Amino acid sequence: MSKPKIAIFDFACCEGCQLQFVNLEEELLDLIGVADVVEWREAMSEKSQEYDIAIIEGSITRLEDEERLKLIRSRAKVLIALGACATIGGVNKLKNNFNDLDEVKKCVYGKDSKKPHLATQPTKAVDEVVDVDFYVHGCPIDRKEFTYIVRCLLLGKTPEIPDYPVCVECKAKGNPCLWQYGQVCLGPIIRAGCGARCPSNGFRCFGCRGYTSNPNVDAAKEVIDKFGLTVDHLKTKMVLFGSRQEPTIYG
Amino acid sequence: MAKTVNINVHHVTRVEGHGNIVVNATNGKVEKVEWQVPEAPRFFEAMVRGRSYEDIQTIVSRICGICSITHSLASTKAVENALGIKVSEQADKVRILMHYSEQLQSHVLHVGYLVAPDLFGLPSVVPLAAKAPDAVMAVIRLHRLANEWSDLIAGRTTHPVTLKPGGLTKFPTAKELRELQERLKNSVADLKAVAAAVLSVAGNLPNFTRQTEYISLKQDNPPTYTFYHGDITSTDYDGAVSIHDWQSVANEYVNDQSTAKWTKWHRDSYTVGALARFNNNAPLLSPLAKDVAKMFGLTQGCCNPFMNSVAQLVECVHVVETSIAMIDELLTKGIKPENVKTSPKAGKASGCVEAPRGILFHQYEFDRKGNCVGADICIPTNQNHAAIQKDFEKFVPEILDEGEDAVRLKLEMLVRSYDPCISCSTHMLNVEFVR
User: Fold this and answer.
1) How many independent structural domains does chain A possess?
2) Which of A12, A18, A140 faces B42 most closely, judged by CB atoms?
3) Do A108 and B17 touch (CB under 8 A)?
4) How far off is chain A from B7, nearest CA to CA, in Å?
5) What residues of chain A lie within 8 A of the CB of B68, using their CB?
6) Does residue A104 belong to the interface with chain B, where contact is any CB pair within 8 Å?
7) N or C: which end of chain B has fewer CB within 10 A?
8) Which chain B residues are closer than 8 Å to A14 by Cβ?
9) How far apart are the CA of B322 and the nearest CA of chain A, in angstroms?
10) A74-120, pLDDT tens digit by residue?
11) Is there a domain that residue B216 lies in?
12) Shortest CA distance from A65: residue in chain B
């Protein structure tokens, strides 16, 4: 069997997820040994239009980017959404909370905001434009999870991604609950798989891996009641990575 | 000699973000030379409005994956200045240690993975690993060290999770610091090996100079080769400007060529980054860093933008040497637990630090509930856009006779030498020779 051709493309994002490939260090060279990386602008000068697997980083904020993404999809057998910007829209979706995008543009570019090259539209995750075959969650992605998914793909297996909340991993690590310390942590409703990285460092979960497919809204409500907070407190944190896609939690 | 050269590099490779180069020359006459930045704008300054002072760092860290620690530090300092929040001496030191890890990570990535292939005449680090395996392995070891150093202090390698207004959520233990210090001491051999490898091909750095203004931080008390504290200074200006007056230095304006804003101070362009810091602060470098500068013949007042990569190598040595000493200071005093509580307050202020690629400014205003009502961010790559354009205008006529391929390569190398981080500024590199 010939080596599968992989191409990596970036849209609106910080490119921190691609950086995790470089952070694989020697393992990156191993990966390149089993797959043929044919395009990766951040690290290589080579370019190609033929690939089996397209890895998409970033969210979609312009019409021209939607067209480019559709073209990539039509060429690729498998499409992977890489990182929160691609999987759920990420912080770029904060923009969508403002109904008037002209005002958003004016806020940053002032009187020049009408220039055509500054055009923008509401932020979309990759699967709001094309079909996605695999998701690599997180902001940034966890490089171990990424290599696991690629390994599964090369072996023809389906990767198993956790669909339970961050609290499960956090408890298993024996961390004290950050709610006890006055932090509004999204652990109860966010998808695990990160090893509870943030709470383990004393920082609340802010939801970069997106919600579990069936978030335990009742449990979340119980927690906020217990600590004398309101749904609004929770929503101000949920909005960071989950703008306009929060599961309904009625107070 | 009559030459017709048309270049249109759409999305320059091996840089962070998207940028285009357009060159149009007919019969030896340059008609158009343009540096364009078409990155999709993300509107961070608008998006942070309405968000709590506690969440600003989490959002703006995402401006850039490569310098996320720097953005987190600049924004956290601005928040602290706006709300009048004090930080302990030990927290200040640990933050600087965190910041140094990113300087090393970013510089090693830039010099080792992105610039070195050009100097060895190769398209990427993959074939370079076959051609110069020992040097590449040393680069990989240094890069891993920098990342594990960030992991330890910042909670992870990209987008730190231990920073909060008032201090840190977690401090490294004495044992962890001792282990880090040992690894830093052991890394000096790799730093020397990488410097020697780059020196062996340094002749391939184009010999190009353009007099310009270099802007960076400067710290007098105590005198420090600073990345974190101090005031703004420049090679055109003897004094120092408070970081709170940064807008009077940057003078941002929108240019049709780019989705990123441009800046200028005393001239039509200025330059920030490792070479700017070196030009303003070189006498304050650590001893071994000074030796490395000498090896390459790098002296204060250098106006060759290609030497920025060399200045980065010098800084790699400096941050490692300085961190070894800082860890001793921290261990002598002992790390004490902290539990800083902060409360919201109205206020407006700036925060400024040196990103690996140059000086970075953040400013925020908060209402009495501590919610952001306005932000202004000026990133280093934007500050270099005008300089890149001016370099192109001087450089292209000088190399036009070398033909399209050489012009394309040298312009790409020039852009890379600035270590642009275009997703910060919004994105960057593609050379197009227009036909």
Assistant:
1) 2
2) A12
3) no
4) 16
5) 14, 16
6) yes
7) N
8) 62-65, 68, 423-424
9) 24
10) 999 999 999 999 999 999 999 888 888 888 888 888 877 777 777 88
11) yes
12) B40
Q: Is residue A172 in some structural domain?
A: yes
Instruction: Find the closest chain A residue to B431 by CA distance.
Output: A45
Structural domain boundaries, residue B279: 46-376
Residues of chain B by 3-state class (helix, strand, coil), percent to 5? 50, 20, 30
Q: Do A44 and B123 touch (CB under 8 A)?
A: yes
Domain with residue A50: its CATH number is: 3.40.50.700
Range of the domain at A218: 167-242
pLDDT tens for B34-72 read 887 766 678 899 999 999 999 999 999 999 998 999 999
Are B346 and B72 contacting, i.e. CB atoms less than 8 angstroms apart?
A: no
| Torsion from C-alpha of B188, B192, B194, B197, nearest 10 degrees | -170
Q: Do B259 and A117 touch (CB under 8 A)?
A: yes
**Same domain, residue pair A64 and A116:** yes
The conformation of residue B148, written as its DSSP 8-state character, comes to: H
pLDDT tens figures, A112-143: 777 777 788 899 999 999 999 999 999 999 99
User: What does the alpha-carbon distance between residue B325 and residue B319 come to, in Å, rounded to a whole number?
Assistant: 10
Q: Tens digits of per-residue pLDDT, A5-35? A: 999 999 999 889 988 988 888 888 788 788 8
User: Of A130, A155, A180, at which residue does a domain stop?
Assistant: A155
Question: Phi, psi at residue B124, to the nearest 5°?
Answer: -165, 180
- Residue B41 has its nearest CB partner, among A29, A103, A120, at A120
CA angle B45, B51, B52 (to 5 degrees): 125
Average pLDDT, chain B: 91
A135 burial type by CB count under 10 A (0-12 exposed, 13-18 middle, 19+ buried): buried
Q: Do B42 and A92 touch (CB under 8 A)?
A: yes
The reply to whether omega before B222 is within 30° of 0 (cis) is: yes
Asked casually if ipTM beats, i.e. exceeds, 0.90, the reply is: yes
In a domain, B412, yes or no: no
Within this chain, do residues A32 and A75 fall inside the same structural domain, yes or no? yes
Confidence of residue B426 (pLDDT cuts 50, 70, 90): very low
